[in-house]
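Input/output pair, single chain:
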Amino acid sequence: MKPIKQSTYETCLACCLLMLAGKGRRDEVEIWKHGWKFNYLIGQLNFVSSKYNKKIIVYIEIKDYFNWLQPQKSRGVKLVNSRIDWKLIAKLLKSQPVIIYADGYYPFVPNSAYVHAPHFIVALKAVGEFVEVVDTYDGKIKKWKINDLKKGITSLRNHLKYSPVLITID
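Output:
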């Protein structure tokens, strides 16, 4: 998988979807804009599923969010209501990369300028106490401590009040 660096502050999901779909960055902004027509998440998923004929499976933790998204999804998008934790991520990583939605603060704590903010990344594989990820913020492959990723998911849920999300593409 070739890493993609996002060209705008808000296109991390679009870049992650393009990487998993095996496409270049050409449609990054178009995908992101499609999110404006529905919900940020489901609009982009519907667009990628339709344009690239991909089956997308999305794990949504918060039941109310899952129920709200369900009628908005296209046929190529399957939603699964599930708790998002390291056990599920590790299981999915055994067969494919996975997009993870987390608070990006914890992996970047040494950089005091970084603030709490939701961020999509692509997890490639688990290696010991680390997970290898593609961070679209700078388009680089990095090793994050699994414990920091867990903290990022917990913070997304409890501090930022967003539903944790995992995404796979077949």
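DSSP finds six helices and seven strands in the chain. The mean pLDDT is 92.
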